[in-house]
Amino acid sequence: MPNYVLSIDQGTTGSQVTILNEEGQALYNAKKEFKQLYPKPGWVEHDPEDIWKSVTDSISEALVKSQISVHDIAAIGITNQRETTVIWDRETGKPVYNAIVWQCRRTSDFCDKIRKKHLKTIKTKTGLVIDPYFSGSKVRWILENDKNLRRRAERGELAFGTI
């Protein structure tokens, strides 16, 4: 029985799935885009359900069009948006806020303040720069701007992750 690799590239504007054979040749490719949300200048969001649907629809299309059974998939490779931030309900698994995209600059002022006070310490300990790209300032922003979500997070009802 042949073994295939299912490759998922979950990107900023859409999700692409490629099925590769044992020689690494692409047999089928499916791509689904999703809506970009710009609530204010410099802000970028996605509906997390749209992201998920783009992935599952791309997988389904690739499997159906290639006529490959899910049982013939030996491995799945995933690449993603990395720092796009999502908060969801621990019990239901449903998102409770739009995903804040890695490109979003809404936390720039906060990062500037932190950078002035703690740049050397953070750079020494983490090797990273302080930038709105990273998820920590995004989570803080959500919890500072939605008191109900803050209360739910304090009760342990929410979880956070990146795409």
Task: Summarize the structure in short.
By secondary structure, the chain is an alpha+beta fold. It has 4 helices and 8 strands; from the N terminus they run ββββαβββαααβ.
**What gyration radius follows from the Cα positions, in whole Å?**
19 Å
- Percent strand equals 25-35%
Number of strands: 8
Q: In whole angstroms, how far apart are the ends? A: 33 Å
Note the quaternary state here: single chain
Basic shape: elongated
Which range best describes the helical content: under 10%, 10-25%, 25-40%, 40-55%, 55-70% or over 70%? 25-40%
Which class of secondary structure composition applies to the elements?
Answer: alpha+beta
Please tell me the overall pLDDT.
Answer: 95
What is the H/E string? EEEEHEEEHHHE
Strand order of the largest sheet: 3-2-1-5
Largest sheet: 4 strands, mixed
The poorly predicted ranges are: none
Structure description:
This protein is an alpha+beta fold and 163 residues long. The protein has helices spanning 48-66, 108-126, 135-145, 147-154; strands at residues 4-10, 14-20, 26-33, 45-46, 73-79, 85-89, 99-100, 158-162. It has a 4-stranded mixed sheet. A hairpin with a 3-residue loop joins strand 1 (4-10) and strand 2. Helix 3 (135-145) crosses helix 4 (147-154). The longest helix has 19 residues, at 48-66. The two termini are 33 Å apart.
